[in-house]
Amino acid sequence: MRVLWREGPARWGLRGWAMTVLAGMVMTAAVIVAGGLAFGSDVQVMGIRFGGDAERTRVVIDLGRDTRGRVISDGSTGQVAVALSNVTPPAGMAGNGRGLVRAYEMDGGSGGAQIKLQLAKSAEIERRFLLPPGDGVPHYRYVIDLKSTGAAAIPATVAARSTPRAEKPLIVIDAGHGGRDPGAQGSSGWEKNITLAAARDLKAALERTGRYRVRLTRDSDVYVAHNRRVQIARDAGADLFISLHADAGSNPSLRGASVYTLSEQGAGRAVREFTRDDDWQRNLRLPGRDASVDRILLDMTQRATQNRSAQFARVLLTHIQAADHPTLNHSHRAAGLAVLLAPDVPAVLLEMGFITNADDERLLTDERSRRRLMRSVAESIDRYFREPSAPIQVADQGGQG
């Protein structure tokens, strides 16, 4: 059963509109163009831009379509390499960099492109994310933020000889409730036991594919605070966070799964919560040195994360329905749930069914039925990472909160 933030009425109004317009201006002005942008309906990679200094450098890749990034080399060899799916760069895309980047090149390959950044000094990826069109910018932007490690650069000749290390996407699975927080009660047990069993089933299904790294927020009957669950995902650099719950209601005939993503009001609350601490800029790993600029960047990051979360929610519901698992009529919902507040990790909360409904409880406590449901969740994760732009059809969606 989900845990809600209490939300009051919040509206952006004229000031919010002005801030979003300013966000687009800041992103445009904060980088130095490394070669002109090539615009056109058939152009997939428009250009690469750099901004920053020898301590922190931002790399912005302007794109004509959606993509998903995967780290090939993390900087430990003197080179950062990231594979971008679904895009094809123009031939001969290379040039000098700025700040931490000595030079760059981008080439095409099977199913996408790869950008290689030769480092001027030792650095690591601090964060990376995709910004969709919006806030006055009509195209996608893939952003890579680099941070100096304080050591000398590895010579480029050494980097060229090194074998890149592939990094698999990290999935953090959150088994709802636990310990002193049992959750909702069914006729044969507590929600906390169902969510833990399901989390273990999903972890096993994902690990069998060999394509993911998987971490649980809890692997025993212990209590984990909601903000700690979010922090586990952020600290680990998760690519996706999924929280598992079992719903409850006063009407025993009510049944079916549903998926929650963060609401607009919840997103505003998240920004306020994360900027309350004096160290919020450091904790959020934002590159700017001006608090007002970093607030704009945080808001843009939050919105990009919301878009990713909603995309995965649609994929997830499609696969759950295809597995003939019952869903609510309005199965995609939005609310200010505590475990969805990370501004930089796509996240959903899956209510697997109603523990207060006899049929749903039977499905969730039966090992074979529960594992079948978790296999459909694993398949949805596969599709989410394999087809970032695939059109998704969901039978019935609705919103709440």
Kindly describe this structure:
This protein has 401 residues and is α+β, with helices and mostly antiparallel strands. The chain is built from nine helices and 16 strands. The protein starts with 12 loop residues before the first helix and ends in a 15-residue tail after the last helix.
Q: What fraction strand?
A: 25-35%
Using the coordinates shown, work out and report the CATH topology of the largest domain: Aminopeptidase
Order of helices and strands: HEEEEEEEEEEHEHEHEEHHHEEHH
Q: What is the straight-line distance between the termini? A: 16 Å
Tell me the number of helical segments per DSSP (H or I, 4 or more residues long).
9
Overall pLDDT score: 79
- Helix and strand content put the structural class at alpha+beta
Query: What's the CATH first level of the largest domain?
Result: Alpha Beta
CATH architecture level-2 label of the largest domain: 3-Layer(aba) Sandwich
Strands of the biggest beta sheet: in what spatial order? Answer: 12-11-13-16-14-15
Largest β-sheet summary = 6 strands, mixed
Give start-end ranges of low-pLDDT stretches.
3-42, 153-166, 391-401
Radius of gyration: 22 Å
Features:
single chain, 401 residues, Immunoglobulin-like, Aminopeptidase, 6-stranded mixed β-sheet, 5-stranded antiparallel β-sheet, elongated, disordered N terminus, disordered C terminus
List the helices and strands and how they pair.
Blueprint lengths: L12 H17 L2 E2 L11 E8 L3 E8 L5 E6 L4 E7 L7 E4 L4 E9 L2 E8 L3 E9 L8 E9 L7 H6 L8 E6 L15 H19 L3 E4 L9 H11 L3 E8 L9 E6 L1 H11 L5 H4 L7 H32 L4 E9 L11 E8 L3 H8 L1 H20 L15
Parallel strand pairs: 11-12, 11-13, 13-16, 14-15
Antiparallel strand pairs: 1-2, 2-3, 3-10, 4-5, 5-8, 6-7, 7-8, 9-10, 14-16
Helix pairs in contact: 1-7, 3-9, 7-9, 8-9
